[in-house]
Amino acid sequence: MYKLAGEERFLLWAVCSIQLQVLCDKSGEKLLLLAEGLLKKHIASHSMHEPEALMVYISLLEQQSKYNDALEVLSGNLGSLLVIEVDKLRIQGRLLARARDYAAAVDVYKKILELSPDDWECFLQYLGCLFEDDSMWKYFDDTDQIHPTKNIECKFSHLTEEMFDSRISSASELVQKLQRDTENSNLRGPHLAEIEIEKRKFLYGKKNDSELLKSLLQYFLKFGHLACYASDVEAFLQVLPPHKMAEFVGMLVENADSVSASATTVLGQTTTILKVQELTGNVFELPLGEIEASAVKLAKLYCQNLPLSKDLDPQESMFGEELLSLISNMLVQLYWRTRDFCYLAEAIMVLELGLSIRGHVWQYKILLLHIYSYIGALPLAFERYKALDVKNILTETVSHHILCQMLESPMWVDLNNLLQDYLKFMDDHLKESADLTFLAYRHRNYSKVIEFVLFKQRLQQSNQYEAARVEASLLQLKQNADSIEEEERVLENLKSGVQLVELSNEMGSRTLRFNEDMQTRPWWTPCPEKNYLLGSFEDFSYCPKENVNKDREENVKRSIQRKSLLPRMVYLSIQCSATALKESLETKGSGGDLKTCEELKSLLEEYTKTLGSSFSDAVEMITEISQGARTFETLGSDLVDWLNFAVFWNAWSLSSQEHWHVLNLLFERLILDRIKSMGSSQMNSCYSDVQVLVQIITEPLAWHSLVIQACTRSSLPSGKKKKKAQHSDHLPSSPMSQAIKDSIHSLCSTVQEVSNWLLNQINNPEDDQVERFLTTLKRNEGPGQVLGVLESFIASSEESEVGSRIFESLKTWSKADSARKTVTAQQRVLREFHQICGSKRKLLEKLKQQMSHV
Amino acid sequence: MTTIRRFSCNDLLRFTSVNLDHLTETFNMSFYMTYLARWPDYFHVAEAPGNRVMGYIMGKVEGQGESWHGQQLAKKLMNLLEDVSDKIDKAYFVDLFVRASNTPAIKMYEKLGYIIYRRVLRYYSGEEDGLDMRKALSRDVEKKSVIPLKRPITPDELEYD
């Protein structure tokens, strides 16, 4: 097309294709030379007419590290295509920095800062050039970075002290000038820059920690009343040693203006101090009494300041809104440290009251959904999640808040809707992405062409997307496990699990992307796989959120790899079982088609690899646990996966009575021990155990019941053989048939125990449970004080003080209603689980009947 | 300290805390990608230190006017868009649509010099009315583009998509 028409756009299509090929393949850099050559030739004969074409040309040269060539192009005639001066300067600064012409780059960045004194990224780039430090450019190239680290590395080792002092002094001079020039505005940049300079000195080893703290304090005095203070200074706080962080918090408390300042300033500063305490982890070192007193103080502050929001529109954020989040964070911490449920109940009440006053506060909804999830009130957690109105791209970044809990729950209908909505969004976008890319091309926005293609790749490689596809298949299998015929239909639609095995095989070498936004998660669950409340406070050591997330990538990959194998293993187990019993009755053979068994063995080996074990070690492990020689704590959080292994290991070697016996013991031990430890505890304190039971019964136990169904189906007489089979009632059963009968019997009683426990919980009258919930909140000392403050305020508040809208919300909010909704939600989860257990028992009874003829 | 730069696709994965606010609609992907594909210079994001997305603004050019979708931050973003349309595209006016119930947004735009030009009945999904707010630019010397209409209109009467 280009040769025919000579139009720039056809050439740019070719150039973009080359750039994409090199970016995606990470090879073929010689192709970039070709692309460069094509563009040079075109410019020589036709010049260049599109600003976007120029951007592509520059990026092409940058990709080849030809920074000086790019600078030449930018400063030549073609540079006039870029009309916005600041944009041009930004590119120039970047190219000079990457070409290591730091002196020239510094001048350019100074110019940009004089035009835009508040441009933080530009200031950091200016400092990087001043110190001849190229660390920040690795983030520029790294298109994997969605949430770049807040802590930018600083390299100084190449600078002598004299050089460092002179450069830092230049930086200070510039910052002073910017502060003077922007004196009458509220720009924060030039003041935050002062802290950055002190931080650099500190990192160099100047022992200026007092000056650093002082600069942080100065910034607090100017901007501490604003909501942005804590997040502005977060990166600086992370460089301080713990004792200095504590000292800084003390300084803030001392200097907070409580006398002459306005109510909003006091409110803002108090909120800021608390947020700084949270960020530094300092809040975990405070004694319980101090945290409790602090929470009560905040509750009073919240009430005192409600009148400030009297005339605000209900859609606007209210003054002091953040206080309720901070209070509930403290209450959750108090619960964790004391295990007194009252604190958790209080946190629920505080947040529900907050939502009653203003229903649009998404932060409250997220905190609540996590608390409700923890105590097993999952329908209510799901309701709070739905109230966030998560749709379209937010399903990729936000659904992690609820997905994990739903996957481990008996709420299959809601889970299915959640998964299908998400998968539909992703599939639809991936289908339409090509058209949108072409749209960018048609409008000559070539840089967007490359961006769109890379973005599509990012979504395709999403770990959540891969996991959801696998989980959607598994959900279908779980839902239909009580009928082998239905299960076989599902497996047929899943191509007998073959494609998922291919996915599992590729997973090792695949890149997975982590697009979820974990920043909005509560402190106690920084990622879906971690919940500090499940462990002991004594074992905890504070770790910034971003460090926690680094470790999850490998674990997530292995989990997807492992789960992808399950459908195929279910299929193969059914195949192995289909003939095993019959053959054992007729020929006393080991049963099972050889090829099928070999494939199942191979998958079992892959499966155990993902658990960090060899096949033989895995067999030894489960055997020892079944015998009580090892505790099931050895299995850690992969307990369900190990049970799955045991089920399919048994299916692979069905003729071994010993294997059946090991499996029976495993189920008995793991389930009955758990029921024993739960005892008569309330759901509030043992939901995590219930979650494990749900998973055991709906997965490994379900797969095992399919194995048994396949065995018994093959033993059933069909057509003309019926009469003959009736005579066989008198034949002694084979060892295998006895093993199956024993297994059915064992499973029946185990599931019955679970049902009994559930029934005990369900039969507890709801009114009694609500009363118990409310009673925990009625205390004179210790827990309940925060709620006490809020309730006194509600009782004494006047409409003239808080306005009619807030007054109405306060008066209509009911603690009893919140308690009842919580209890009802917990009961619903138990009832759904009970129903599932009921179906399993029915199936097992039917199998018992069928086997009685064998 | 705000860095204002062109919005990129990856910002769709970073604007969670902005879009969880109930006043911000999360549109389907083709909506955002169409703006990015056709008018990338009118789609900017404002970042705070630590690369936190604080806000973003989406604009497009239609005919001789401009439609807008989308503190101090709002003012900066709007000023940027008004500058681009005034100086580069020589537009007569800027206009935007806002839900009739969104009082905080309406007040903010009025402070930035926008007036309510007309009401568009059942403009939004859920049958809510939209308000078309306008601000005249330097080219519209006589301020003809911002004389309010006397009656509401329906979406099919809109001149542009």
Radius of gyration of chain A: 32 Å
Oligomer: heterodimer
The 3D shape of chain B can be described as globular
Terminus-to-terminus distance of chain B: 36 Å
The percent of residues in helical segments of chain A reads over 70%
- N- to C-terminal separation of chain A? 76 Å
Number of strands of chain B: 7
Order of helices and strands of chain B: EHHEEEHEHEE
* Overall average pLDDT of chain B: 83
Shape by Cα distribution of chain A: globular
Strand order of the largest sheet of chain B: 1-2-3-4-5-7-6
Q: Give average pLDDT of chain A, whole number.
A: 89
Largest interface: A-B, 61 and 43 residues
Strand content of chain A: under 5%
Largest sheet of chain B: 7 strands, mixed
What is the helix fraction of residues of chain B, given as a range?
10-25%
Write the layout of secondary structure elements.
The complex is a heterodimer of chains A (854) and B (161).
Chain A: H1 2-5, H2 8-25, H3 29-46, H4 51-63, H5 67-75, H6 85-98, H7 102-115, H8 120-130, H9 137-141, H10 161-181, H11 189-204, H12 209-223, H13 229-237, H14 242-255, H15 263-280, H16 288-305, H17 321-338, H18 341-357, H19 362-374, H20 378-386, H21 394-398, H22 400-407, H23 412-442, H24 446-460, H25 463-479, H26 484-493, H27 498-507, H28 545-550, H29 552-586, H30 594-610, H31 615-627, H32 639-652, H33 657-678, H34 683-698, H35 700-715, H36 721-728, H37 735-762, H38 766-776, H39 785-796, H40 799-802, H41 804-812, H42 815-851
Chain B: E1 3-6, H1 16-19, H2 29-38, E2 43-48, E3 52-62, E4 65-69, H3 73-88, E5 93-99, H4 103-111, E6 115-120, E7 130-136
Parallel strand pairs in B: 4-5
Antiparallel strand pairs in B: 1-2, 2-3, 3-4, 5-7, 6-7
